[in-house]
Amino acid sequence: xxxxxxxxxxxxxxxxxxxxxxxxxxxxxxxxxxxxxxxxxxxxxxxxxxxxxxxxxxxxxxxxxxxxxxxxxxxxxxxxxxxxxxxxxxxxxxxxxxxxxxxxxxxxxxxxxxxxxxxxxxxxxxxxxxxxxxxxxxxxxxxxxxxxxxxxxxxxxxxxxxxxxxxxxxxxxxxxxxxxxxxxxxxxxxxxxxxxxxxxxxxxxxxxxxxxxxxxxxxxxxxxxxxxxxxxxxxxxxxxxxxxxxxxxxxxxxxxxxxxxxxxxxxxxxxxxxxxxxxxxxxxxxxxxxxxxxxxxxxxxxxxxxxxxxxxxxxxxxxxxxxxxxxxxxxxxxxxxxxxxxxxxxxxxxxxxxxxxxxxxxxxxxxxxxxxxxxxxxxxxxxxxxxxxxxxxxxxxxxxxxxxxxxxxxxxxxxxxxxxxxxxxxxxxxxxxxxxxxxxxxxxxxxxxxxxxxxxxxxxx
Length: 461
Ligand code: F0G
Prior knowledge:
Helices cover 40% and strands 13% of the residues. By secondary structure, the chain is of the alpha/beta class. The chain folds into 2 domains: 2-55 and 317-455, Aspartate Aminotransferase, domain 1, CATH 3.90.1150; 63-314, Type I PLP-dependent aspartate aminotransferase-like (Major domain) (Aspartate Aminotransferase, domain 2, 3-Layer(aba) Sandwich), CATH 3.40.640. The strands form 5 sheets. A 5-stranded mixed beta sheet has the order 2-8-7-6-5, with helices on both faces. Helix 7 (199-212) links the parallel strand 5 (182-186) and strand 6. Helix 1 (26-35) runs antiparallel to helix 14 (367-379), helix 4 (104-115) crosses helix 10 (277-290) and helix 14 (367-379) packs across helix 16. The longest helix has 20 residues, at 317-336. It is globular and about 60 Å long. The structure holds ligand F0G. Ligand F0G binds next to helix 4 and helix 5.
């Protein structure tokens, strides 16, 4: 029998410019971490070697995007660049009317103000922090209708972003369809670990909501990554291109909010989209209050040019294979060292389970926070806590104790090499070897809102 040789693949680009990084010693990193109050958000980025804090706005642009910047039309009104961006959104996503915004939460603010009345209910496939906050500020209440599997880090369901239609039906029965302005659907659910929704589930949801006359609003921040998973995992989509799958996903929804800082390969930008003229008219009224004129919405002309090119590049099959493939490579490498991670590996990052990594700590020791600090001191790799610190406090002052206590390794697009990825996994393995010696933390400063950004800690002795 012939030997089947496993063939490697590589990125569909090469480097034309590099950004030099400062190399630090362990002693320097220990001092920097102490100064930052054991919170990775408070580190200076120049002290970071490999930055996996977020995939938001941290992408490397292509030569085509950099040259598009020079074509930016910086007119206050009617910028050519706006029409380039509008054209790309209509062509590749298929939505009719576009309102540009400075980033995703700007679009969420406007959309929530237009569609939500006080007392409304917004069911969705898991919350996202800014999305839910804008729904609440507009007077609505978010209800989670994602499948149960999404809340279990080790369940290997291929579509942990799916909606449980029974949960949705119960919400509709309880409140009535009239109080539900829309169902909020994220493609590739961030808080579940970058997990996709299937086309089958979305079609079933569409059939149900059409019967009840309820809209679907699409958080399409990572739609191309979701489309890649559909292509790889869903029957009937093996031979379809990411471009076709993305268009089909969008066609099953009525409008969208987008943070272009992720999928669309830029450093800033976003938009709201809708197929309804009345919704568009109202949003266009509001955008001038909160963002800027309706043909720039807080963006420079050059930003809109870069988005137009980035959208097209994000739909390239080879690009998505390399992007999600790199995250998968990191996840597999960590697993080979026995490190407990959320399964299946997500689209934008690897999530390490701090509870099983540090079983000798209780959640009151802030295990994910402590682990993120240790990983930085070990290697200069910056990650983010997604556990009890991020969850915050209940109105009665007690901590929320979330089921998931995770450290997120978020991979920026087109930024790091496979060798960087190896260094990250090896650093985590080194910390894993000495895990029994890792102590918990004490919170010594706690801000009132979104405490994870600015809280400070000290090691417990
Ligand atoms: N929706 C999702 C699913 C997101 O992940 C984000 C941002 C937003 C909306 C808001 O967009 O930042 O442009 O205002 N996520 C970043 C992260 C911050 O690190 O996960 P934005």
